[in-house]
Amino acid sequence: xxxxxxxxxxxxxxxxxxxxxxxxxxxxxxxxxxxxxxxxxxxxxxxxxxxxxxxxxxxxxxxxxxxxxxxxxxxxxxxxxxxxxxxxxxxxxxxxxxxxxxxxxxxxxxxxxxxxxxxxxxxxxxxxxxxxxxxxxxxxxxxxxxxxxxxxxxxxxxxxxxxxxxxxxxxxxxxxxxxxxxxxxxxxxxxxxxxxxxxxxxxxxxxxxxxxxxxxxxxxxxxxxxxxxxxxxxxxxxxxxxxxxxxxxxxxxxxxxxxxxxxxxxxxxxxxxxxxxxxxxxxxxxxxxxxxxxxxxxxxxxxxxxxxxxxxxxxxxxxxxxxxxxxxxxxxxxxxxxxxxxxxxxxxxxxxxxxxxxxxxxxxxxxxxxxxxxxxxxxxxxxxxxxxxxxxxxxxxxxxxxxxxxxxxxxxxxxxxxxxxxxxxxxxxxxx
Length: 432
Ligand SMILES: O=C(O)C1=C[C@@H](OP(=O)(O)O)[C@@H](O)[C@H](O)C1
Ligand SMILES: C=C(OP(=O)(O)O)C(=O)O
Description:
Blueprint: E1 5-7, E2 14-18, H1 23-35, E3 37-43, H2 49-60, E4 64-69, E5 72-78, E6 90-91, H3 96-107, E7 112-116, H4 127-136, E8 139-142, H5 143-146, E9 148-154, E10 158-159, E11 162-164, H6 170-180, E12 183-184, E13 186-190, H7 198-205, E14 210-213, E15 216-220, E16 230-232, H8 237-249, E17 254-261, H9 268-275, E18 279-288, E19 291-299, E20 303-304, E21 307-308, H10 320-327, E22 330-336, H11 349-359, E23 363-367, E24 370-375, E25 380-385, H12 390-400, E26 404-410, H13 422-430
Parallel strand pairs: 2-17, 3-16, 6-7, 10-12, 11-13, 20-22, 21-22, 25-26
Antiparallel strand pairs: 1-26, 3-5, 4-5, 7-9, 8-9, 13-15, 14-15, 17-19, 18-19, 22-24, 23-24
Helix pairs in contact: 1-2, 1-3, 1-7, 3-6, 4-6, 8-10, 8-12, 10-11, 10-12
Bound molecules: shikimate-3-phosphate and phosphoenolpyruvate (PEP).
């Protein structure tokens, strides 16, 4: 993707498309495959920059990983003990999922590693995983007492813990479950609301037993992962959300997105768009590697403002910037609360969403834990900036489809983090 992307107003969106593979599932397939015994072939893999960082890190730990084609990856796992000490940095790039889940694996690996990332990762809190991993027995050093990258990890024998997480975070939960596999006894994690459960769905396919209730998950240590042979990755609902939003707000649109992951811990955005009055039809077509999959058909709709809060938030956490764009086109006020986690994503997504939407003439107020958006407001064209955040880049680009004069997105290359081919897919839909 070029660094500047210009999106002009569209008459309508029409047609059928697919979206790239789910990012969360792609990361996990590579990581679990890397520490499992046996070969794992991943189809529908997301060839976005974040998942490529995961591949690179595990190659540096001696795991043979081949890419037959863009979206097909084969991991030659030799078991967790097959990982070897990396002889240079493990660079996670922009990927929070890579660093937090990998720290769980490094904590249980008897060697030294040094973990770095880009300037956005350097601002994101790591103490939420470093503190419990230290309690399990891992030695972790780093900037500001180990709260930020760069981090140095010496892993080894771990003891299980019971951890009550302050935030609903699948990255924290998954990190500790992975470390728990190398610990004596039972590791238990409790969270305030249930976060995405891809780890809990995929680990059993790798032969791991775990126990779950609504907001709690536990497993006993000393279990070995063995490859299921194949993992089939559905389309990423977080990427589909940008196209769904576009079809809702551009008049006369009617589109279908096929083979999208419909895991109920991820479908909060469909629930909220429907509550706003969005005409969205969902047809479940099957299950791929333990994950529900289906087709989503969207027709442009008259929308109204809604309140989004509580246990809905973790189910649509990455979709809040695009939800804010849609809310500018809804009649009445949309209030998003309980979403303070947005401040520690690739950017402060509360501040940056408000700033970029205001450039376009939207009426947006930042609150301590969310946003208040007044609709309905016509958007005017402007220059926006992704601030290096893929979701902000795509949200402002979608706004360009309805902004008088279009939108130019600076630092648009960030979009390749999660949605390579975004511009091409949008172009296909806007040209019938
Ligand atoms: O586990 C995952 O794959 C992810 C969990 C979420 O982060 P948190 O765990 O920090 O909420 C989400 O925002 C991120 O895009 C992917
Ligand atoms: C927050 C995100 O990802 P990560 O935490 O993996 O960087 C995202 O994809 O929106």
